[in-house]
Design a protein that fits this description.
By secondary structure, the chain is α/β, with parallel strands linked by helices. The chain folds into three domains: 70 residues; 130 residues, Trna Endonuclease, Chain: A, domain 1, CATH 3.40.1350.10; 56 residues. 47% of the residues lie in helices and 18% in strands. It contains 13 helices and ten strands. The protein has a five-stranded mixed beta sheet, with helices on both faces. A three-stranded mixed beta sheet has the order 2-1-3. Helix 1 packs across helix 2. It is globular. The model has no long low-confidence stretch (mean pLDDT 94).
Length: 274
């Protein structure tokens, strides 16, 4: 059976890949096999991976909303747009959870020119500038031109002191974060140049997906009990993490949701964060 990937490439349907993605969402083996059998019965020649994903998501949502929310994680990061402003805030929150002090949306003077810096981090006397490369669609990747360009900005900024967390801080590290992937050449160039990368699949074992699951830093955009419009309203209120709803449901009342809706949403929040 041939299927069409997001990129347009035509490949063989790989049931093992679907199985792995279901298990990564926390789905138990019985549920995963049931979903796979139902999807196999609906496959046809030339079906898109997007359609297969949608089928799996809808089947999981019927069985367990937390499984569906985790399965929807990568797509939910793509909703932190349109320009990535909320993704930058999300990255800042992630590093705060890891014990860093953070600042966002900075304008810093380098030796040659002024630069906009998405996020600055401080921990253990180390100052890191973070460049966030947000992509709203699955096909987009960060190629080698990205670390090349950011390296030149890093070199211009690290030669000068900056008022960040103290009066005179020197930037000594640089991290590039993307919600998608880096090309192989981009990863090679970054490693060779001393730049750090964080993406959906890098570094191995400590990538963005693993960090989100480990720390339960799920974006509100992954919740299945909220509409797209409701998610956008919450983001505008700076409610970016599911855990923020767990701590206070006032924002749900503020956007006009009924007590019954709020109860169902908080039920999903509790199940997802437990």
């Amino acid at each position: 059976m041939k299927i069409v990937k997001h990129s347009g490439d035509i490949v063989d349907f790989d049931v093992n890949k679907l199985h792995r993605s279901l298990l990564k969402s926390g789905t138990d083996e019985t549920t995963a096999q049931d979903v796979i059998e139902q999807i196999k019965s609906q496959l046809y020649e030339g079906i898109s991976t997007k359609k297969i994903y949608k089928l799996a998501f809808e089947l999981l949502k019927k069985d367990s909303k937390p499984y569906a929310a985790r399965y929807n994680l990568r797509a939910s990061l793509e909703m932190l747009g349109p320009a990535g402003f909320y993704f930058e805030k999300y990255v800042s929150m992630l590093f705060r959870k890891l014990g860093y002090q953070t600042r966002i949306n900075l304008e810093l003077q380098g030796r040659c020119v002024t630069h906009e810096v998405d996020v600055a981090l401080q921990k253990d006397n180390q100052i890191t500038m973070v460049e966030c490369k947000f992509h709203s669609n699955r096909e987009s990747v960060s190629d080698v031109k990205v670390p090349m360009y950011i390296l030149s900005r890093f070199n211009d900024l690290r030669s000068q002191p900056h008022v960040l967390f103290e009066e005179k801080d020197f930037i000594n590290k640089c991290l590039i974060v993307t919600n998608n992937r880096f090309t192989e050449d981009a990863a090679k160039f970054a490693v060779c140049s001393g730049l750090e990368l964080l993406s959906w699949d890098l570094p191995k074992g400590n990538n963005l997906r693993n960090l989100i699951d480990t720390m339960q830093l799920y974006p509100i955009t992954c919740l299945t009990t909220l509409s797209v419009g409701e998610k956008e309203q919450l983001l505008m209120q700076q409610v970016i993490l599911v855990n923020q709803l767990r701590e206070s449901a006032d924002s749900l009342e503020f956007i006009g949701l009924s007590p019954v809706r709020i109860k169902n949403i908080l039920k999903e929040v509790k199940a997802l964060c437990n």
